[in-house]
Request: fold
Amino acid sequence: MLIQDILEHNARAHPTRVALVAAKEEVTYRQLRDRVRGYAAVLRSGGIGKGDRVAILAHNSVLYLEALFAVTRAGAALVPLNHLLIGRELVAILEDADVKALLFTEEFLDRVGEIRPSLPGIGCFVRIDDPGLPTRGGDDAPDPSPPVLETDIALVIYDGGISSRSRGAMLSHRNLIAASASAALELSLSRNDVFLACAYLPFLGGTGRLLRFLYVGATIVLQPEFDPAEALRAIERRSVTRVLLTPTMMAQILAFPSAGKFNLSTLRTVLYGGAVIPTDLLKRAIRFFRCGLVQSHGQVESAGILTVLHEEDHSLDEGTPYMRKLMSIGKEAIGVEVRVVDEDGREIAPNEVGEIVARGPNVFDGYRNAPILTSKVLRDGWLRTGDVASIDEEGYIYIVDRKRDTLTVEGISISPREIENILCEHPSVKEAAVVPRPDYTMGEVPVAVVVLREGTKEDPEEILGHCRRNMAPFKVPRAIEFVPALPRNAQGKVLKARLRDRQASRRSR
Reply:
């Protein structure tokens, strides 16, 4: 099954059902299918075909979804771009992905103009909200030749920036369909659902979850950007049954003064994931929404799904086994085999500590242009997640640490090395180590531990200003801590575990 088959089936089965709602626009499944057919025909006539990659820079919109389906129908792969990245970060991703075309909306016209001179390899720049853009729809739009296969790459997802040039995760049609089917079964999704999409679509968490609801023929209400008042208003007005919220979104809704005045009675499930969520925030959310809460845990490499913590596991009965389950990521999802293993790949006993590994049709094909890195992550058919965890007798999994040197800010994976390299470009910085600090709403935030060059003064604002000029806002350290030297072992390796432990007790709010 291909991504395009989702639209083809729903356009035949219930053509007049509303697929997408955005601002004042409603698009039925038949209309969406016809638009995508025409869009794909235009792309093919412009030379886009099987094996190509097409990037997109846009906010949540019908146009973004049309591009996703049209690009993949044409046989190419979509490369979503994070609009928060600065110019040189975008250029690094576009060069690594070797894209043939860049799609964008009017609001990013200036940004594209700035980076265009650095991208001589891209032959086609298309403003997709240009009213004069040619389209051709209807049943006469031919299928691509050679045909698209389920093993063909549909999405290439980049989490980071410059130092993550080789971290473009390649997801096939098969991967995305398998993840959608697993989530649809685990969450009992149906065509009667109305899903409010607040998460930023160019992240896999946004795109992947939309595909799950389109897979079952549900209706999706799109918000360009998250706003607590608008989200609550949309739930009330559109009779929303499901919504995905990050911890930050949850906290903003709970802090909104008029939150209790909205009628949220149609809401059946609040889905969450993508970042560590404090237990007290989760408890407050359970009491406020008065509906089921479900955690879906996954990685880009697993097409966004590995485990699920179900509604019945979200108990507030203090002192019961159920209360402890709130600290877990749940059990393996349908269609995914998840284990916790030791260094030799042997499954460990309950409550011992090892690494989470997984296999299934949802597991990705590898990283673009990075065979060595891919071979380290994919071993004997198993995805090595890098998450250190234990598993209890009932199959609930508890993450206790991570093996990879990464941190996650509201679901966005960041390379500490990238931030460290930019810090060391500052003339006052001799060396730096970046580690995560737990954060009440963001999950984690980066903190920089810095050793200054001899004769320079401590000036955190100067160093932070340097960071702001050279990296995306979400990567900028929330604090600078100056030390005379970084802790190292006998081989000279920085002991980041010691630095992480120091930050663990300093949760920011």
About this structure: The chain has a mean pLDDT of 90. Residues 3-225 form a domain with the Rossmann fold fold (CATH 3.40.50.12780). The first helix runs from residue 3 to 13.
